[in-house]
Amino acid sequence: MFEWHMEERDGSSIALPEGAIDHETADAFQAALSGAIDGAAAKSRLIVDLSRVEYMSSVGLRVLMRASKQSREAKIEIHIAGLNDTMAEIFKISRFDKIFSIHDTVESALAT
Amino acid sequence: MRVKFWGTRGSIPTAITASEVQDKVVEGLLAAGGRKFSGPDEARAFTESALTFSQRGTYGGSSSCVEIDRGAGEFTVCDMGSGFRAFGIDALRRIAEGRPKTFNIFMSHLHWDHIMGFPFFGPAYDPETTIRFYGGHAEMEVALRRQQETISFPVPFDFMSARIEFHPLEPGRSYEIDGRAVRIIRQYHDNDSYGYRFEEDGKCAVYSTDSEHNSEDLDADQAFVDFFDKADLVVFDTMYTLADSLTMKEDWGHSSGMVAVDMCHRAGAKRLAMFHHEPIFDDATIESHHRDTIRYEELMRDEHALDVLCAYDGLEVDL
């Protein structure tokens, strides 16, 4: 099951996906993330709060990478926040921790 | 069905250096801590219990060559990287024991690292040998002849006296070749590459190297999941980390251990062999990637555990 919520806070867009992101939910994740980038103003920031994502397979990570490229073209910064232990390991194994700006919480992402 | 890895390195053969060998000896001596051994057997047992694979051995450096064997009859090999030379030497030994001089070679693609072993294949110079090439590329013969043009190699293709045949295969069809059901799938790689599925007596091995699964076409994954369906062994190109495969190495035509695990999980495959190792990686780095892939499999496991191997030159897997 996959859910998606958006909010605006302190000039940043915050995306809050919920559930597991794998091959069954990747299309929905992609559509939502792409829409969030399209909807964000240029030179603004999109924080993807992954605190409610149980795990993300390589398909989900590939979606995230595509979003990163889309955001660069749109001049939007993507920040990742709220990785649980499993997600932190997945980001480390994939070396995505070297590519994305990662924060413990949304608040710490907003503070940068 | 036995799968034997004669070459597991990608892009270019890579030799271990004297310094790297010495480093391994030093690690072994330090681990032994002054212990005395009664003889080679005890010392060997110690290395296997106290040292990791990268400390006591090496993944090797020969480029891609994988044999599918039933222990008798014709020989079947996927790709002719530099490991094909050692396969040829061993095949001569088995021919002397009674095996026929007939080889079925399945070519993933025509890039140099996958064909460079052919000029050094001893049986090709024997007029009693039959070599049948199978592949998705119409230009198989062109590529092999080109690498043996005299400007590049001193022995021309026509000097090989074996009977040589070329058999193009098409994706979407099933073939019976030497008693096995064989299917081919087209893969994303520069100038295309092809993967193979071999089925015999209820066992199945898949050879899928030099295949990129990138961020642009997620729907293409399902075709591979179907191709890998319930395979006993999937040999998969895990050359890069996921991040590298999607950024600086995007469109380089290779994949990662994480994608391999996810596809094998979805397919219900039993075992994954990581393959086509990056030539700049030393043994410790390849072993680290292996550990990461094993851990990822544990994190993502749903119902059935996938056994994650890391192929090395000389590995034999019985299905």
Please characterize this protein's 3D structure:
- The complex is a heterodimer of chains A (112) and B (319).
- The longest helix of chain A has 16 residues, at 58-73.
- Helices cover 40% and strands 31% of the residues of chain A.
- Chain A has one domain: Transcription Regulator spoIIAA.
- Chain A has helices at 26-39, 58-73, 85-94, 106-110; strands spanning 2-9, 12-21, 45-49, 53-56, 77-81, 101-103.
- Chain A has 4 helices and 6 strands.
- With 112 residues, chain A is of the alpha/beta class.
- The radius of gyration of chain A is 13 Å and the shape is globular.
- With 319 residues, chain B is α/β, with parallel strands linked by helices.
- Chain B has a single domain (2-14, 60-318), classed as Metallo-beta-lactamase, Chain A (4-Layer Sandwich), CATH 3.60.15.
- Chain B is built from 9 helices and 14 strands.
- In chain B, the strands form 2 sheets. Chain B has a 7-stranded mixed β-sheet. Chain B has a 7-stranded mixed β-sheet with strand order 7-8-9-10-11-12-13.
- In chain B, strand 9 (193-200) and strand 10 (203-208) form a beta hairpin.
- The longest helix of chain B has 18 residues, at 283-300.
- The N and C termini of chain B lie close together (5 Å).
- The interface between A and B is medium-sized, with 24 and 24 residues.
**Strand-pairing-aware structural class of chain A:** alpha/beta
Q: So what's the CATH class of chain A?
A: Alpha Beta
What is the CA-atom radius of gyration of chain A, in angstroms? 13 Å
CATH domain class of chain B: Alpha Beta
How would you sum up this structure in a few lines?
With 112 residues, chain A is an alpha/beta fold.
Write the layout of secondary structure elements.
The complex is a heterodimer of chains A (112) and B (319).
Chain A: E1 2-9, E2 12-21, H1 26-39, E3 45-49, E4 53-56, H2 58-73, E5 77-81, H3 85-94, E6 101-103, H4 106-110
Parallel strand pairs in A: 2-3, 2-4, 3-5, 5-6
Antiparallel strand pairs in A: 1-2
Chain B: E1 2-7, H1 18-32, H2 40-50, H3 53-56, E2 65-69, E3 75-78, H4 83-96, E4 102-107, E5 130-135, H5 140-147, E6 163-168, E7 174-177, E8 180-187, E9 193-200, E10 203-208, H6 221-227, E11 233-237, H7 242-246, H8 257-267, E12 271-275, H9 283-300, E13 307-310, E14 316-318
Parallel strand pairs in B: 3-4, 4-5, 5-6, 10-11, 11-12, 12-13
Antiparallel strand pairs in B: 1-2, 1-14, 2-3, 7-8, 8-9, 9-10
Helix pairs in contact in B: 6-8, 8-9
